[in-house]
Write a structure and sequence with these properties.
alpha+beta, two-stranded antiparallel ribbon, two-stranded antiparallel sheet, about 40% helix
Length: about 150
Amino acid sequence: MTSLNFDGEYIARCIRRLGYGAARGSSSRAGFRAVAEMIRKVCAGRDLGFTIDGPRGPRYIAKQGPVILARKTGAAIFCFHVAMKDRIQLNSWDHFQIPLPFTRAMLFQAAPIRVPIDADEDEVRRCHNRMQQVLDELKAQGDRWEAA
C-alpha cells in the first residue's frame, strides 16, 4: 500500500517496475478502498507490504492497517527492518533513506504475528501494540548494527 501523494506515486512506479502491484491509499485518504483491494489480493494468494507509519506519521509509529488486514484474512504479519551502513538520509518527516552504491545492509526480521479472525477490539489493540513493540525492537537492533 502506498499513499496517494507524489511520493506514493513514485514508490508505486518503482514497485510496479519490480513486478509487484500497489494498492493506492493511506490511513487518511482512500484507506478503506485500498484495504479492500489488499484483502482481495491476500485471498488470491498474494503477499502484501505496508509502509506502516502512514503518509503523515508520526515517524515509526504503526497504523492499524496490517492488524485489520490480518484479522480479516487470517494472514500473518511479518515485521522487518532494513539497516544500511552508508546512505543518504533526506530531511523529510520520515527521514527517507537512499542506500549508496555497494553499501552493506542488514535485514532484521521477527517471528510472525497472528491476529485471530474472531479477535475483539481489545485483542486487536493488543496485537497492534505487539506489532509496534516488535518494530521498535527491530529498529533498535538495526541502529546498533549501523553504529558498530
